[in-house]
């Protein structure tokens, strides 16, 4: 680490690292309609092209862990940030499906590598502090997402060209990096054994739990408005309220989560979170009054908020596998849940109903709660 770094400076720099990819991804989201029009895509083609972002992320995460072991987190995070900053303006310029897909793949690789390296950084900072900090770090990813979406929407609303708006976002990211990069970890992470390996045992168990929780979060993102609109009969213009309640509840719960995890312990925090999220899905699906079911969306956000941060802490502190393999495995399997979630929900809804699909998620979250008894390191 840099000689001028202090524990407090490292903690602030880690929060900034989490803010950056959340901000970058949310800057891209409001540009999607412009990119769709510029590249001449229909809805089906857009869906295929958007998969490139997820593919880039999934492929980059394990490689980022191996590189962090050899080069240290700082170099990987700095390179990832450079990739995100270089590709954001290009996303506003892409004029063909092939070009947009290629840029999205590289952008996704930058986001995925940053996601992996920043969690390795967070594990080290939390370990040095000797107290729970992971929930607070993850909260800043959500805050970054809110800020990016709000700023970009405001700029585009006053007719700022997408390229200029994306360029302004890059300037903001670079300015934040100036103060953060000196306090990111630069040491190699030494361990015995291969730098890349398929997760097994306890690490695979953690990855499966992360998959379920990320699947639940992904179902909120992609299906909450559809559920309120098609099942509860809410006007489409107001159907986004469910996700807003979910996202705000999750962010607030993560800001307060470190204290909660410190008091309850990791096992009971996962138990309580899984139960709350499961009850939340049950309320959403079984309570007819849509305004009352919003309480269910809030419970899902509160319940899911601190489970994944706890799982990352456990992955970084277990001894079955090196953390540079365990943490990327968590990121990769979790992100796979986000990608697979909408498709699985859609398949179940098509085979039965959206209510049945949501209840299946509730049961899976009960399984996460029941599994907390084995979460010991």
UniProtKB/TrEMBL annotation:
Its main location: membrane. GO terms for cellular component: membrane. The chain crosses the membrane at residues 12-32, 44-69, 76-93, 99-118, 139-158, 164-184, 196-216, 236-257, 269-291, 297-315, 327-348, 354-375. Keywords: Membrane, Transmembrane, Transmembrane helix. It is a multi-pass membrane protein. CDD domains: MFS_MosC_like. Residues 203-377 form the Major facilitator superfamily (MFS) profile domain. It is found in: Membrane. InterPro entries: MFS, MFS_dom, MFS_trans_sf, MFS_Transporter. GO terms for molecular function: transmembrane transporter activity. PANTHER family: BYPASS OF STOP CODON PROTEIN 6 (PTHR23514), INNER MEMBRANE PROTEIN YBJJ (PTHR23514:SF13). This is MFS transporter. It comes from Stenotrophomonas panacihumi.
């Amino acid at each position: 680490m840099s000689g001028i770094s202090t524990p407090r400076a490292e903690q602030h720099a880690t929060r900034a690292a989490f803010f950056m990819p959340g901000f970058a991804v949310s800057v891209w989201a409001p540009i999607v309609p412009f990119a769709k029009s510029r590249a001449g895509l229909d809805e089906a083609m857009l869906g295929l092209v958007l998969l490139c972002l997820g593919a880039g992320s999934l492929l980059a995460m394990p490689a980022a862990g191996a590189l962090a072991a050899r080069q240290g987190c700082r170099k990987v995070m700095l390179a990832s940030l450079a990739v995100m900053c270089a590709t954001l303006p290009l996303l506003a310029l892409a004029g063909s499906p092939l070009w947009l897909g290629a840029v999205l793949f590289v952008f996704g690789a930058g986001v995925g590598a940053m996601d992996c390296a920043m969690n390795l950084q967070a594990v080290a900072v939390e370990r040095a502090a000797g107290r729970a900090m992971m929930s607070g770090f993850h909260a800043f990813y959500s805050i970054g997402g809110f800020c990016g979406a709000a700023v970009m929407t405001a700029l585009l609303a006053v007719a700022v060209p997408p390229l200029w708006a994306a360029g302004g976002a890059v300037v903001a990211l670079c300015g934040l990096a100036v103060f953060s990069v000196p306090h990111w970890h630069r040491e190699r992470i030494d361990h015995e054994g291969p730098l890349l390996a398929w997760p097994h045992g306890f690490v695979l168990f953690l990855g499966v739990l992360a998959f379920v929780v990320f699947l639940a979060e992904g179902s909120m993102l992609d299906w909450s408005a559809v559920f309120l609109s098609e099942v509860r009969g809410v006007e489409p213009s107001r159907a986004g309220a469910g996700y807003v309640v979910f996202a705000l509840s999750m962010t607030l719960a993560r800001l307060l989560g470190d204290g909660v995890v410190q008091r309850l312990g990791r096992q009971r925090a996962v138990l309580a979170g899984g139960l709350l999220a499961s009850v939340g899905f049950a309320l959403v699906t079984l309570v007819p009054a849509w305004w009352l079911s919003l309480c269910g969306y809030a419970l899902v956000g509160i319940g899911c908020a601190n489970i994944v941060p706890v799982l990352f802490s456990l992955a970084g502190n277990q001894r079955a596998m090196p953390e540079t393999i365990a943490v990327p495995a968590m990121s990769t399997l979790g992100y796979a849940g986000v990608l697979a979630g909408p498709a699985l929900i859609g398949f179940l809804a098509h085979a039965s109903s959206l209510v049945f699909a949501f209840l299946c998620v509730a049961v899976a979250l009960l399984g996460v709660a029941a599994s907390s008894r084995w979460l010991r390191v």
